[in-house]
Amino acid sequence: MAGIGFTLKKLFYKDTFTDRFRAYAFSSMVAAGPWLSAVLVVNLLLLVAEHFIIAPADRYLFMSTIVYGFIFSQLLTAPWQFVISRYISDRLFQKEYDYIQSSFMGLVKIVFTLALVLVVAFYFGTPLPIYYVFMSASLFLILSLVWILMVYMSAAKDYQAIARAFVWGGLVSVALSMVLLAQPIDFPQHLYASNLLLAYVAGLFVTFLLLIRTFFAVFAFSNQLEFDFVRYLNKVGSLFFTGLLYTAAIWIDTILVWNSEHGRIIYDTYRFALLYDHAKFLAFLTIIPTSVLFLVYVETEFYDSFKKYFQAVRSKSTFAEIVAARKSMVQIIYRHIVYLLERQVLTTFTIIVLANPLFVSLGFSVLLVDVFRITALAALCSAIMLVVLLMLLYFEARLEALLVSAVFFVANAVLTATFMPLGSAYLGLGLFLSALMALLLAIWLLAVYLKRLEYTTFTGQPYFAQPEKGLFISLADHLNARN
Amino acid sequence: MEVALILEGSYPYTTGGLSSWTQQLMEHLPDKRFKIVSIMPGRATLPSVKYRMPKNVVEVHTLFLEDYMLLSPHKRGRSVRLTQDEQKAVENFLAFDILTDWELAITTLSNVNKIGTSVEFLKSEYFWEYLLDRYQQDYAAKDFNRHFWSLISMYVPLLTLIQQEGPRADVYHSLSTGYAGLMGLVYKFRYGKPLILTEHGIYAREREEEIINASWVADDFKTIWIRYFYAMSTGVYKSADMVASLFNRNRDIQIELGSPSAKTVVIPNGVQVESYAERTNWDNRTNIGAILRVVHIKDVKTLIRAFKIVNSELPDTKLFIIGSGDEDLEYYLECKQLVDLLLLNGKVEFTGQVDIQTYLPLLDLLVLTSLSEGQPLVMLEGMAAGLPFVATDVGSCSELLLGQGDDSIGPAGIIVPPVSPEETAQAITVLLQDQAMRSEMGKNARLRVEKYYNQGQFIESYRQAYDRLGK
Predict the structure, then answer these.
(1) Under CATH, which architecture does the B273-453 domain have?
(2) pTM confidence score
(3) What's residue A27's pLDDT?
(4) Can you tell me the distance from the alpha carbon of A443 to that of A465, in angstroms, rounded to the nearest whole number?
(5) pLDDT, average across residues B443-465
(6) Do A13 and B149 make contact, defined as CB atoms within 8 angstroms?
(7) Smallest Cα–Cα separation from A104: which of A81, A72, A71?
(8) Cβ separation of A3 and B8 shorter than 8 Å?
């Protein structure tokens, strides 16, 4: 008789292990690099503005506009950044380059639409003059686009082009601000705030143009499937929320402080907490070392050990050899996390100690120092946490990464709400404690995960090929089919 | 009384000896209600139903080996908690150990609530630890990646299958070991009902041959696959309440493979001799017939080559290849090409699926060149119609043609070795040229079937078995 069991000829033995190197490194760049350069520029602008006698209200207005632009463009785009970076790296791996430019066009359409809706809703009924609103809205939109472009540019690994774009944009902003403060355009209201904002937006626009020029040069080909990436919301949907929650966690304390007795409202439009906002922005400047070092490290030593492990998994190695490769990789990971931590601790503590004289010499208020110190510690924790989080993502521990972000967010909200009423001396404590807590959790999860990495490497694979299913996959197929 | 017949890759979707046998059994036991459990490869490739089912068939329940595709392959493993006894049974089962406690292993592994779906179980840490232990013990120097995926691809369909639901019945009757036998065990243990096993061939042996010839499996995995099929067979041999075979040689093998001899019984196939016209005229000597599915195991190519030799000596001869060719289309086309190549166009006819009873009177001689056989029903039919045979020495062919024990009827054909076109051709030529021999053997054929391979006996044996076990 004919047995069916064996003639099936279906061996699931296959080669789908993740030897491709997911380009998550972007996130540290996106979350830190350009935003740091932007903070620098804004502070420079404020220093420039010091030389002119500007009404405090105008300065607060300008600061708030920038702060809002930053925070909300990050919140809007961060979820997509994680998802799209995964999509890009998969397409790059499969050498389907035409999908990349198209996905950018599709994502820009989605983000631009969302941003417009938010802008209209937010500025509806504001007493601010129309030209100011227009510039603020432009700031928000351009920033959102810049964040997204950054993901694509870091996937292309063209860090020089990124740096160049930000340097030129920054220079334009600073130069233009000097010109405009000396010879201001005659805006009827908020003269200096409007001129400063104009200078900043103009510089940012230059950055955007430079970035997009490089983008189209690198990803020259396109197809009609602009919304194909939407399927990744099903495939790796947790990345969306990991990005959202991590970013929201970084800012939820700020938003709570704005809405407390420490916050004020200006022109019925922006809330702000002068001391807290300024201190926190400065504090996040201190994590430059981690961002840069991590990027270098991911591209070099980590990549090599990561590749060796997956090569061992795929290429006829015995289990003992796989374990050996894992152990040497894990050692390298730990060594580097410790190394990053050392460098960052050294930097942060040096700045904390020197904060008093430093702030005085830079002309910042001494009142900032205490809040700066605690938020610098928080920045330290959140930067290392991001590194560990990205490690988790490299190993496809997506649920663990999501958990870390969620804990960070909830803890920051709860702790900030708890400590805030105790007085301004406690500002930033919630952020610091929650970041520390989430960092410890992330390290613990990573350690547990790496310990049984072989288990997850093998059993984490889908056991057989199956057509993908899900709302967003159908949506993507539907949109693709339209073309 | 309800009887569930469990088949693999067979009735009602493919034709062949086992399917005809099934149809015959059900038609002649009209007072029993039958449920068919048909195990097939996949939904997408399911052939159409090939039989008009008798009225007493109340349900056809089709199980698919590829139904694991309905599960999510991404599920995370779940925690599996087993008692020590359960662990031992499960681990023996997974190691394809013939000393497995089959009842405990199958009850545990087929219980979704206990161990999760097959995917969840195979992703559990428990299973991972077990797999690692086994690997370290026996395969530590081997490619782990391949080892892992090879085992997963064996276990996924297996565990998914045994977790499937099945129909309720008073008696379960598996018509082979392998997956059909395994499902018989699942139902027996799950519902506490008796299980009968009837084997037409020896499943594990057939798989073993297939595996040895398969080029896509590495040698060390051939050993594992062979163990797998033998172990699955042993489970049924040991646990079934009755183990039937068609002839003595197979019964001996069943005992050798673990069946307690007290449970074994030989129930030969049978045909209704009266429904075949008795042949009186033996003059014609041109039409050679072969009733078979055109598949590799029937070795149709040897048949065609033998016919080439016969035809060059007796140019007016024709060969009728009677039976379906769509089961293995590639092989079917190769056979047609061979006919072209040997310039036998017009002399070899592929009739496709036809009613055999109407064809038999046209034929003068039947040939069977199979590489492996049980007790071919078509042979009994041909013999009942008084046709002499040339057949290979496989399965019970020689028993059928030459008789055994105290049978004094005399030969009903000529036995030749498998894959021997020349010997086959020689036997065919001898028979075609000797009219006296043809008529003598034809008469013997009918006599032997009448006496030893009678449908009445066959049906009665199963009626009694059902009544005895299923009350």
Answers:
(1) 3-Layer(aba) Sandwich (3.40)
(2) 0.80
(3) 47
(4) 33
(5) 94
(6) yes
(7) A81
(8) yes
